[in-house]
Amino acid sequence: MNNYIWFDPIGWVGAVALLVAYAMVSHKKLEGDSAIYQLLNISGSLLLAANTIFYGSYPSTFVNLIWAGIAVLAIATRKRTASQ
Predict the structure, then answer these.
(1) Residue 22 neighbours by CB distance under 10 Å
(2) Considering only CA atoms, which of 26, 29, 24, 67 is closest in space to residue 45?
């Protein structure tokens, strides 16, 4: 069995995570600065990045890695602000 068969489901799970995060914020089920929202963004972006690296879609990889980085910074800023 081909080990690369996992890259498609990984990409789909990442896409679903990002869409769930967006839908939940849009319908006011989550706050845009909540940890859950940011964790969905990080996980979704990293899974999509793995998929796009495999397929050689480097512009999408770039966007997803930046997206994950923004979410990491948002969590770090939130923690820093909460501890003050």
Answers:
(1) 15
(2) 67
- Residue 63 CA to residue 61 CA, distance in Å, equals 6
Domain of residue 9, residue span: 3-82
Place of tokens 């899974």: 47
Calpha distance 33→38 (Å, rounded): 7
- CB-hemisphere CA count at 13 Å for 55? 15
Residue 71 · residue 45 · CB < 8 Å:
yes
**Domain count along the chain:** 1
Q: What is the pLDDT of residues 10-36, one digit of tens each?
A: 999 999 999 999 999 999 999 998 999
